[in-house]
Specification:
Layout (H helix, E strand, L loop, with lengths): L15 H14 L5 E2 L14 H11 L14 H13 L10 E4 L2 H10 L6 E6 L3 H11 L5 E5 L5 E2 L1 H9 L4 E7 L11 H13 L3 E5 L15 H4 L5 E6 L12 E6 L5 H17 L5 H10 L4 H23 L5 E2 L8 E6 L15 H11 L6 H13 L1 E2 L1 E2 L9 E5 L5 H19 L2
Parallel strand pairs: 1-12, 3-4, 3-6, 6-7, 7-8
Antiparallel strand pairs: 2-9, 4-5, 8-9, 10-11, 11-14, 13-14
Helix pairs in contact: 2-10, 3-10, 4-5, 11-14, 12-13, 13-14
């Protein structure tokens, strides 16, 4: 081309959660049935919407007003409902003008990083959720900036690591929290959340908290929302309906701005995000209209509790099934849909493999395994896919120096769940002993 078309940051856009699907489809075409453990899609794992939620959606579909534009910031009545819902819980208070809807939380995340100066950095957790880390790195034209989550301490963040990176990097303008966390399933205790606020206040930063799993906690955990602990620090909460309802195909997420007027530069950021949405006219309307009707329904709290209890039971079952495997370590989970399995240091090498009966699949996987750029956990993931037909995501692709893989806790069919995790256990034992 006459001139380069892409800036350097474009190379940082990666999403291995979806990327591994390309390889899985190749294996599938060669005759291997695949169990999809790569992505947190509740519907794909047999967690359908209850009939009463579908009835609400159908009633809205029959109304002509559903098909019109909404306000650029989102349906006014829905924003008023969400502001009231937040304010009843105490903590930071907002109005309907502090809420901005997007076409899914991925859209919101992309917009958030897009308008920051390339030199303004958001530091986030590692292992990192790819949508955040890729968007932050792409806007900055360099690798993501992260603080460490410690697998030897319940996946809690290393707050000393965070503090020193913020202190000695004046380009850091904000801190990202994902709570409950994806990919680790950790739920932050209050004393750590308060420490985030203290660091942000000391260095004049704002906080971002991805709270998409805020209503998915279990095993005795209770979640503290951003509004509860933010106090006077400027912050943005990222929320949506894709996980808890579950309605990922609805593409409906929103931002809530806290303490917007406390800092002029932060207020300008919020205004810029609103202006960007006005250029697009509006976001998807049907799910916005459904939110108050569903969340105010007396059946909704029981529905959320039941779903969380099911996920908690699966998390305990998986711990029982994988707990005896030597060479790995993982923590009990308390929120979200995932667990992260970490390989102990030194147990992986380039000579390990699993038996693959299909010669075409074996040849394909061996060709992938010979790539010199592979991390050890990628190599394991490819063999697990080819030999056992289980598609998982390597933890090294979550912007982490750790080696392991992420699994989901979503499969509603318990017999199928056991079958999948028996295959994972068999694959681990065969690979680590080869």
């Amino acid at each position: 081309m006459r001139q380069p078309l892409l800036r350097e940051g474009a190379s940082e856009l990666s999403y291995e959660i979806r990327g591994i699907v390309k390889k899985a489809h190749q294996v599938e075409k060669l005759g291997q049935k695949v169990s999809w453990e790569n992505i947190g899609d509740p519907v794909q794992k047999n967690m359908g919407l209850p009939a009463w939620i579908k009835d609400i959606i159908v009633s809205l579909v029959e109304q002509d007003a559903t098909y019109s534009y909404s306000d650029s910031k989102g349906v006014l009545e829905t924003r008023e409902f969400l502001a009231t819902l937040n304010n009843k819980k105490g903590g930071a208070q907002i109005s309907e003008e502090d809420i901005l809807f997007f076409n899914g939380l991925g859209d919101a995340i992309a917009k958030l990083y897009q308008y920051l100066l390339p030199s303004s950095r958001i530091i986030g957790p590692s292992p990192a959720y790819s949508t955040h880390s890729s968007a932050e790195a792409a806007h900055a034209n360099t690798h993501p900036l992260t603080y460490s989550l410690n697998p030897n301490d319940n996946w809690y963040p290393d707050m000393d690591d965070l503090y020193m990176k913020v202190k000695y990097n004046p380009n850091v303008v904000g801190i990202l929290i994902i709570n409950p966390d994806n990919p680790t399933g950790m739920v932050y205790p209050r004393f750590i959340l308060d420490r985030f606020v203290d660091i942000a206040r000391e260095f004049n930063l704002f906080l971002i908290c991805d709270e998409i799993y805020m209503n998915v906690t279990y095993n005795g955990a209770s979640n503290h929302t951003l509004a509860e602990y933010i106090k006077d620090v400027p912050a943005i909460s990222l929320k949506g309906i894709s996980k808890e309802m579950p309605w990922p195909g609805g593409r409906c997420g929103w931002m809530e701005f806290y303490n917007r007027k406390s800092k002029p530069e932060f207020d300008r950021l919020c205004e810029t995000l609103e202006n960007a949405k006005m250029i697009e006219v509006s976001s998807t309307k049907l799910p916005q209209l459904a939110i108050p009707l569903i969340m105010q329904d007396p059946r909704y709290p029981d529905y959320l509790n039941t779903q969380s209890e099911k996920i908690g039971r699966r998390s305990r079952l998986i711990t029982e099934m994988l707990g005896s495997v030597k060479g790995i370590k993982f923590n009990e989970t308390f929120g979200a849909f995932y667990n992260t399995i970490i390989f102990e240091e030194g147990v992986l090498n380039y000579k390990q493999s699993m038996k693959i009966q299909n010669p075409d699949i074996r040849k394909l996987v061996e060709s992938w395994a010979e790539e010199e750029v592979l991390n050890f956990d990628q190599r394991f993931v490819y063999y697990l896919l080819g030999a056992k037909g289980v598609c998982v995501v390597p933890i090294s692709s979550f912007c982490s120096d750790l080696l392991g893989f992420r699994i989901t806790l979503l499969e509603e069919n318990e017999e199928l769940l056991k079958n999948i995790f028996n295959k994972i256990r068999e694959g681990l034992e065969e690979y680590l002993n080869s």
